[in-house]
Amino acid sequence: MLGPVILAASRSDKMRRFVSAAPGTKQVVDRFIAGETVDQVIPIVKDAAAKGLEVTLDVVGEDITTVEQSHAARDAYLELVGRLKELGLGERAEMSVKLSMFGQALEGGHELALANVRPVVEAAAAIGTTVTLDAEDHTTLDSMFAIHEELRKDFPQTGCVIQAYLFRTEDDARRLAAAGSRVRIVKGAYKEPASVAHQDKAEIDKAFVRIVKILMAGEGYPMIGSHDPRLIAITQELARQAGRKLDEYEFQMLYGIRSEEHVRLAAEGHRMRVYTAYGTDWYGYFMRRLAEKPANLLFFARSILTKG
């Protein structure tokens, strides 16, 4: 029951100040956040590539309140694309973007977010990689899917994310599982009401499996975002039943979580992509990682107690 409380705290300025000032915070943040700058994250991309891994890079910071901030977010991603191009890493690294960071919640936000994300998608395509649109809370999804559909007209490799805990997602999965699509399925990490989302973990897991089955039976490219060994094993079996080869789907896991499993799956021949976040505005991302798994919260609590 701690998850919803932590998610609520992710929107609290008072809690943000407390967590930022806590003596053990940096130790735990460093576990989940790869760095604050492009220069700090590039060695991690290179290391992942040397291990046979791929990455998706997320410049953290969803709490945009001005148009100028949305333009700065766009420019941060364009800087990232430029560095990947310089180093020839485009084929090993894609990007994940949250449209809230591109101004989606501002007045005229749908058009603003589309205008900001389009040059990033275009630049990514020019270096041989792509962009995946992350899913956020349920009120933003119709806009996200509409932007995804618009971008795919010119950049069909543009991906999107769906969340197993939402009741709508099975229908979304059927619609999206078409030829050429790239769809990441995750459980979901936002506080959602019972009117739109499963609240019970077992029900969320069942929904996750049903959705993976839909994606595997479709013509698109499924991207499985989970650290759960049982769900990974089920996914492998569903892929086998669907006749999929190992390069016809991929697993995705978060930077800093189950790193040995990243390497193991890659060694077995699976495509394994590490979701790697970086940047200075880490608070919202960090709190969702704590909410997802009690062990993360315990690790944080122990860090505070031992560093205080």
UniProtKB/TrEMBL annotation:
GO biological process: L-proline catabolic process to L-glutamate
Enzyme Commission code(s) on record: 1.5.5.2
InterPro entries for this protein: FAD-linked_oxidoreductase-like, PRODH_bac_arc, Proline_DH_dom, Proline_oxidase
One annotated GO molecular function: nucleotide binding
Residues bound to FAD: 163, 187-189, 201, 226-227
Manner of cofactor binding, per the entry note: Binds 1 FAD per subunit.
Catalyzed reaction equations: L-proline + a quinone = (S)-1-pyrroline-5-carboxylate + a quinol + H(+)
Cofactor: FAD
Keywords: FAD, Flavoprotein, Nucleotide-binding, Oxidoreductase, Proline metabolism
Record carries keyword Nucleotide-binding: yes
Domain Proline dehydrogenase: 46-299
Tagged with keyword Transmembrane helix: no
Gene3D superfamilies linked: 3.20.20.220
One Pfam family from the record: Pro_dh
Binding-site list for substrate: 98, 288-289
Pathway this chain belongs to: Amino-acid degradation; L-proline degradation into L-glutamate; L-glutamate from L-proline: step 1/2
Protein's name according to its UniProt entry: proline dehydrogenase
Lineage: Bacteria, Bacillati, Actinomycetota, Actinomycetes, Kitasatosporales
